[in-house]
Amino acid sequence: MNHGLVLRITGMLLLLEALAMLGCGLFARFDVVAGDEEAMAALFKSGGITAALALGMVLAGGVRQQIQGIPRREAVVVVGLGWLLSSACGGLPYLLCPPGLTPAGAFFEAASGFTTTGSSAIMDLELWPRGLLMWRSVTQWLGGIGILVLFVAVLSYLGVGSKSLFRNESSFRSGEAGVARIQDTALMLLKIYVGLTVVCAVGLRAMGLTWFNSICHTMASVSTGGFSPHNKSVGFYSGWGNGWLIELWIVFFMAVCSLNFLLFVVILKKNWRRFHQEEDARWFLAICAGFALAIAGGRALSGDAGFFEGLREAVFVVVSIASTSGFGTADYELWPTWSQALLALLMLMGGCAGSTAGGFKVGRLLVFLKSARHEIVRTFRPNQVFRLVVNGNPIDDAARARTMFFLTMYAMIVVFSTAVVGFLEAGTGISLETCAGSVLATLSNIGPGFGTVGPTENFGHLRESTQLFLAWLMILGRLELYALLVLFFPSAWRRY
User: Fold this and answer.
1) Cβ(153)–Cβ(173) under 8 Å?
2) How far is CA 43 from CA 49, 111, 112, 332, in A?
3) 427-478 pLDDT tens trace
4) Considering only CA atoms, which of 353, 478, 466, 482 is closest in space to residue 409?
5) Does a structural domain hold residue 11?
6) Taking the chain, what is the end-to-end CA distance rounded to the nearest angstrom?
7) Does residue 477 fall inside a structural domain?
8) Peptide linkage before 99 cis (omega within 30 of 0)
9) Which residues are paired to 390 by β-bridges?
10) For residue 67, what are the contacts with CB-CB under 8 A and spacing of at least 6?
């Protein structure tokens, strides 16, 4: 392990975070709303502390000549360590600004932002100054594209090879990124991400939202994060005359940003053959449409709601859950139990690989379903030879085995973590529904869960130990297990 290289790169990553804090501090400085003086002070202090830590790490790592590449082991460690340190430093403003959070709550809130989970330990958002709410949204916007993918674009100008970093940032593991130089691909993704952000924000402003609310909801929409400056989330606007249009606009961007961003690169390059081979997007959109119609139709037949009213609620909630955004307009815990079971399945699935969404991804679901079909057919046609293809790419036995192992590990972590949450909350009367719901919500980066962490609740009432554990689950899920688990293997840290 080249410890100096790890320190240097992680320190440079924290410098970017410090700049983002200082930018939010400047917003608080020039904002006219009372209370932002405290937010400004908290953000400037936090930015200064983070910058000092970052500079110390860079100096400790050594300022050397250009590095030709980042070895795989160092890249994996930087990814895992970078997310942990970013969340720790990102929680400082929540500690320093009144009304303030506990250290565990601050880490939870920052981890939720950077992992685009959307779960919150803040009991009442109305008590917090706008400068902190802006920082809260910025963490999601940065986390959406992946702090380390943002960093990849910068590394190309610093003479540091960044292919390993790009490969290990969970949202962009597709081999298609290697078609062009990795820095060029990263920059193109950033341009697409910024473009979607601008269009979404301008649209929301045109629909009557203030610039502050437009920007906050835009950052949470394109990042599929779900943080809102309102306690009622997007439901705050449901009573407006054009509330349905605001919801539809946000639904569109949640759905689009749940698709593989490399697909947009394919479209820009007019590679229509590759575009038509994309299965992930078709399956994701079809599943969302099917689940929304099933829930709306079922509620209408049971007399729970009118079909069109139910469809409006179902479309928003289904896309919000499937995209792992976590925005809310309706309390789905009041819906029939079977519809909640469908939402739980969506929580596990998540969006497409290469998107800002969480979950175990639609692509893995496709591999599992096609593999299951092949194994069933083999019971009566044992000699038949199958060719497994997903998105036009052949899947060999090794890749299929890795997928099955990942899904098995994911399921085991869900079960084990549910037991851990129950143990940590022993004596509080917590229900199994809440334990499982909190694990699904954080590991899959959804936001709201079930029970006392449902769509109208938050995570602020949980014990600090539970909040720390769930924050760790958020990062574990965002990095798709391996890049964080590797930090606990001593062999990864040995010098060579």
Assistant:
1) no
2) 10, 17, 18, 36
3) 899 999 999 999 999 999 998 999 999 898 899 999 999 999 999 999 998 8
4) 482
5) yes
6) 6
7) no
8) yes
9) 393
10) 5, 159, 160, 161
Q: Which domain holds residue 110?
A: 1-173
> Is 108 contained in some domain?
yes
- Residues in contact with 158: Cβ distance below 8 Å, sequence separation at least 6, in sequence order: 12, 66
Q: What contacts 144, CB < 8 A, 6 or more positions away?
A: 116, 193, 219, 222, 223, 224, 225, 257, 356
The count of structural domains within the chain is 1
Q: Are 223 and 178 in contact (CB under 8 A)?
A: no
CA dist list (Å): 370 to 141, 187, 263, 284, 397: 34, 34, 22, 16, 13
Which contiguous run of DSSP H or E holds residue 394?
Answer: strand 393-394
User: What residues contact residue 94 under an 8 Å CB cut-off, 6+ apart?
Assistant: 100, 101, 105, 106, 109, 110, 132
CB atoms within 10 A of CB 459: 26
- Tell me if 340 sits within 8 A of 285, measured CB to CB: no
Q: Cα dist. 394→390, 391, 397, 400, 480 in Å?
A: 6, 8, 10, 10, 22
CB contact at 8 A, 360 and 443: no
Instruction: Say whether pLDDT at 173 is over 50.
Output: no
Assigned token pair, 29: 């400085």
* In-domain check, residue 158: yes
The model's pLDDT over 260-283, given as tens digits with 9 standing for 90+, comes to 887 887 788 777 777 777 788 899
pTM of the model: 0.89
- Rounded Cα gap, residues 371 and 388, in angstroms: 8
In 3D space, the residue among 173, 146, 1, 172 whose CA is nearest the CA of residue 70 turns out to be 1
**CA 223 – CA 254 distance, rounded (Å):** 8
Query: Do 237 and 246 form a contact (C-beta atoms < 8 A)?
Result: yes
- What pLDDT is stored for residue 293 in this prediction? 95
Q: What is the CA radius of gyration of the chain?
A: 22
